[in-house]
Amino acid sequence: RHFEILPCFLSFTQTEKDSFWLEANLDNSKTTVVSFMKFANDKIEELFIQQEVQNYCICPRDVTKKNNWLTDLGRILVFVVNFILFFGLEINDGKILDNPQLFGFSTNLTRIFLYIVGSLSLVFFFYMTIIQGIIVLKIQEKRAIKDSEQNKKKGKCYHYLKVIWYMINNKEETFQTRSIWCILLCLGFSVAGVFIDFFWFSFTMAYLVIFSPHILEVTNAVWNPKKRILSTVALSAIVLYWFAIVAFVYFGNDFN
């Protein structure tokens, strides 16, 4: 009766499969067949909820998943911003905030291009955050309903309060939702950067969004020896490079 799990499991990405087996192996309560099947069914149910959301919205199931045109579009926008800013730093000796120019284009043209690409990137990641938030809410809403069969009798107000209470009491589950918190962190830097300087906003957003999924993977790789060394080296290089660029922007004259 549990054979319907197999085709759903085969549709998982490798990251989802690794997470599935890791969580199942770490929890001693899932060692029996019955408890393991219950755990598997819960995971399959999550996947069905994600697919249900996708039926109404154009949304990648995982921001790190390849071969999805929407994900690729977001990455292209971010890399374009990164490309412009990187060469702008080279051309202007770290003074991109004062007079940004790209390959001889005027300051105004460079500014307009950055505004367009940066704004499209911001809209895209707002969209991603909303969709991921809907998935989180639906998953936790369904689990909250299972925990209390009296939700329908007590009205919608109690129903939503129960969902909020479930999310607060299950912080670990909430914060483990794939990539949503990294995207929120990127958006926080982006919105803050808009009020300071748009070029700094574009720059910080680009690096945070590019590397945040990898940072998330490094935290998971602590339990996976095969990926631990490579992920740690990559993350260290990313962080050092990022701080070097920040220093170059603000203290460009000291490099001379």
From TrEMBL:
<keyword id="KW-0472">Membrane</keyword>
<keyword id="KW-0812">Transmembrane</keyword>
<protein>
    <submittedName>
        <fullName>Uncharacterized protein</fullName>
    </submittedName>
</protein>
<feature type="transmembrane region" description="Helical">
    <location>
        <begin position="229"/>
        <end position="251"/>
    </location>
</feature>
<dbReference type="GO" id="GO:0006816">
    <property type="term" value="P:calcium ion transport"/>
</dbReference>
<feature type="transmembrane region" description="Helical">
    <location>
        <begin position="180"/>
        <end position="209"/>
    </location>
</feature>
<dbReference type="InterPro" id="IPR015925">
    <property type="entry name" value="Ryanodine_IP3_receptor"/>
</dbReference>
<keyword id="KW-1133">Transmembrane helix</keyword>
<feature type="transmembrane region" description="Helical">
    <location>
        <begin position="73"/>
        <end position="92"/>
    </location>
</feature>
<feature type="transmembrane region" description="Helical">
    <location>
        <begin position="112"/>
        <end position="137"/>
    </location>
</feature>
